Amino acid sequence: MNTESIGTLIASIVFGAIFFFGTKLRLPVEGEKYYRRVLSFAAGVSIAYVFVDLLPQLQNVTEVFVSKSRHLLLPFPSYRVYLSAMLGFVASFGLENMLKWSKERTERTAGENGKGKEKLGLIIHLGGFSVYVWLINYLMVDNIEGKEFFIPLYAVAMGLHFLTIEYSLRREYGPLFNRLSKNVLAVACLLGWIMGTFFKLPPTVVITLLGIISGSVVMNSTIAELPKEKEGRFLAFLIGAVFYASILLLIG
User: Fold this and answer.
1) What is the dihedral of CA 23, 27, 30, 36, to 10 degrees?
2) How many C-beta atoms surround the C-beta of residue 139 within 10 A?
3) 140-171 pLDDT, tens digit each
4) Spacing of C-alpha 53 from chain mean position
5) Do 171 and 23 form a contact (C-beta atoms < 8 A)?
6) N or C: which end of the chain has fewer CB within 10 A?
7) Which helix (H) or strand (E) holds 204?
């Protein structure tokens, strides 16, 4: 196992630990002094990662995809990655809206039937995010561009991203988001690393998945992580974005 593999394994373990020990690594709860600042700072870091590092990768991998898929005669190969990113964004946004609609119906339903629908919402949410974190960990290992990247910086950005995901799920579902739920997400992180290390997918599939996950990260960073309505703290958001973007540019 080389140094990069060890680094990505450590990153996956850290990601899994964020879900597994979520209650001990928790963000300040709503109403506490730094609650809104922490969420805004984390959103700023994620946004910087998306626009300075993740989206520029799409242009590079588009060239690789066109080269690798010439013999397949696929329609619009130069747009495949961008269309995949749009699909990831729309699918994630659609899932959020579907769950919001389901929750509104649940709130109008009393008794055990309402509780059952809330559990169904958690299962759908958990399934979607399990695939999401699995793909992020897989793509961290299966680097289609074949270039080295600074794993600690990636771990910081995705770690904050996962921390806010864990927090939002725990806040929305309360006791329903129990240890079993956390374990599912933690295991998904490690399974992503294992498959990325030992089971390689075709380059065209990997590039398509990269597009899908890019769109999903954009959606989650800009909508799910940003505090809603007037809860945002622009200064904290700006500090997070400028700080992380500056680091990425300095090592780029």
Assistant:
1) -170
2) 20
3) 887 665 445 578 888 888 988 888 888 778 87
4) 14
5) no
6) N
7) helix 203-219
